[in-house]
């Protein structure tokens, strides 16, 4: 197949999108299945009031190695409408923190450890623009400037006008949306390399 021809490229793009839709179709039900198997609904019900992520993690029959995934599971269940996010009192928060000395979960919306590079693969498309800006700002805080060798590497889906077709301007809108999001996060330079099919490599600097 000659990938240089627009017709073949569009067919490849549509084929990959069709396959990925089928592959990842299970994602909508898997988090709920996982929560039920772990007994999360029963744990929260027995607790009698909202639980912090640390409290829930400590109550689950899992090891510390899997504990960071509890936060991701919580976010998915909230976005799916199975959980709701509730505020707790300062007293309850302090009490929960005092009981959670064995493990401190990470939160990409709060802080990212300092690094030369930060790699984000297939992450941003799961969040809205505001949440993407929040995550990218934390990435910017974690890396040095471009002059000092720092950058954020994003592997995700970005469509341009060639991928969408010559008469379709949706791709250009998508490219502008990416630039706007990066700019709001504080970055002033980026490079998008269109790879095979749906995948794109975005190198981001400040």
Give a summary of the structure in a few sentences.
The protein is of the alpha+beta class and 206 residues long. The chain folds into 2 domains: 1-106, Winged helix-like DNA-binding domain superfamily/Winged helix DNA-binding domain (Arc Repressor Mutant, subunit A, Orthogonal Bundle); 117-205, Vaccinia Virus protein VP39 (Rossmann fold). It has helices at 6-23, 30-38, 40-47, 53-59, 68-79, 90-98, 129-142, 161-164, 170-184; strands at residues 117-121, 151-157, 189-194, 199-205.
How many DSSP E strands? Answer: 4
Q: Poorly predicted ranges (pLDDT <50, ≥5 residues)?
A: 100-105, 162-169
Tell me the helix content.
40-55%
Main pleated-sheet profile: 4 strands, mixed
Mind telling me the CATH superfamily name of the largest domain? Winged helix-like DNA-binding domain superfamily/Winged helix DNA-binding domain
Question: What portion of the residues fall into strands of 2 or more residues?
Answer: 5-15%
Instruction: Specify the structural class.
Output: alpha+beta
If strands are numbered along the chain, what order do they take across the biggest sheet? 1-2-4-3
**Average pLDDT score:** 79
* CATH class wording of the largest domain: Mainly Alpha
CATH topology of the largest domain, by name, is Arc Repressor Mutant, subunit A
Number of helices: 9
Distance between the termini: 39 Å
Rg over C-alpha atoms, rounded to the nearest angstrom: 20 Å
């Amino acid at each position: 197949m000659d990938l240089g021809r627009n017709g073949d490229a569009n067919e490849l793009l549509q084929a990959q999108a069709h396959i990925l839709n089928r592959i990842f179709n299970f994602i909508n039900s898997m988090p709920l299945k996982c929560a039920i198997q772990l007994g999360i609904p029963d744990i929260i019900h027995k607790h009698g009031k909202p639980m912090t992520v640390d409290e829930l993690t400590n109550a689950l029959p899992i090891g510390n190695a899997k504990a960071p995934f509890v936060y991701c599971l919580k976010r998915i269940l909230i976005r799916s409408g199975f959980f709701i996010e509730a505020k707790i009192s300062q007293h309850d928060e302090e009490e929960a923190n005092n009981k959670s000395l064995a493990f401190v979960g990470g939160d990409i919306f709060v802080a990212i450890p300092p690094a030369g590079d930060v790699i984000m693969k297939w992450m941003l498309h799961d969040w809205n623009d505001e949440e993407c800006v929040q995550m990218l700002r934390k990435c910017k805080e974690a890396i040095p400037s471009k002059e000092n060798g720092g950058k954020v590497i994003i592997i995700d889906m970005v469509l341009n006008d060639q991928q969408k077709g010559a008469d379709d301007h949706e791709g250009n809108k998508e490219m502008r949306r990416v630039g706007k999001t990066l700019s709001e996060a504080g970055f002033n330079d980026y490079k998008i390399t269109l790879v095979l099919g749906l995948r794109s490599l975005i190198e981001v600097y400040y």
